[in-house]
Amino acid sequence: DLVASLSRINSRFGIASTLKNVELEGYTDKSELAYTQLFRVELAFGATEMFAFLLAKHCQVDLLRVKRNANDKDAVAYLKLGQLYAQSGWLATASMNAIRKVDSKQALQTHLLNEVDLNQNLQTEVGAFFSGNDDRFVCLAAAIRHVFTHGNLTADAGGFGPAKACRVYRPVCDALLSSL
Fold first, then answer.
1. Directed axis angle between helix 93-102 and helix 162-179, to 10°?
2. Which distant-in-sequence residues (6+ apart) come within 8 Å of 95 by Cβ?
3. What distance in Å separates the CA atoms of residue 148 and residue 33, rounded to the nearest whole number?
């Protein structure tokens, strides 16, 4: 039902917008901040994805690219909102370049790309983003969300470090939230 879906989007958006700090016993302050940003990316991406589904279903606005895995009968939807984001300036080129600079040693990029369950198209898009050939940051948000949700991304991000991770996750989340 449309009203229930809008309510769920609003809830995820609200939590992602207002979440300030996850408190974890036995973790450093920097790790807590990194996990806070990871949870924010998860919630913001979920709200954005649900919104895109609603637009496709109720407004015939196709913001989704549906790919079918040969080994799976279910269709898996991937967002193709990135071009819209880039054109609308929700994440300025300066911010995207800052994200790339934070990962100058490619620790986060390598960690994300080495995940075996990450879709090949998404791997290609993440690689293009980090190389500066593509400014559609939503692929980075999708990869972060996917790898974190499936338990393969921590505050340390494969040696990247929680402080640097926050400098990537926060602007990605904020851009997703500003798009809704």
1. 160
2. 171, 175
3. 15
Q: What is the pLDDT of residue 60?
A: 59
Angle of CA points 100, 105, 111, to nearest 5°: 85
Is the full-model pTM beyond 0.90? no
Rounded to 10 deg, the angle between the 29-59 and 162-179 helix axes is 20
Residue type, 33: L
Tens digits of per-residue pLDDT, 126-140? 888 889 887 777 888
* Cα–Cα distance measured from residue 124 to residue 126, given in angstroms and rounded to the nearest whole number: 6
Closest by CA to 137, choosing from 111, 177, 178, 99, is 99
How far apart CA 127 and CA 150 sit, in angstroms, is 20
- Residue 118, φ and ψ in degrees, nearest 5: -80, 130
CB atoms within 10 A of CB 37: 25
Distance CA 163, CA 147 (A): 19
Question: What are the beta bridge partners of residue 64?
Answer: 79
Dihedral of the CA atoms 109, 113, 114, 120 (nearest 10)?
A: 180
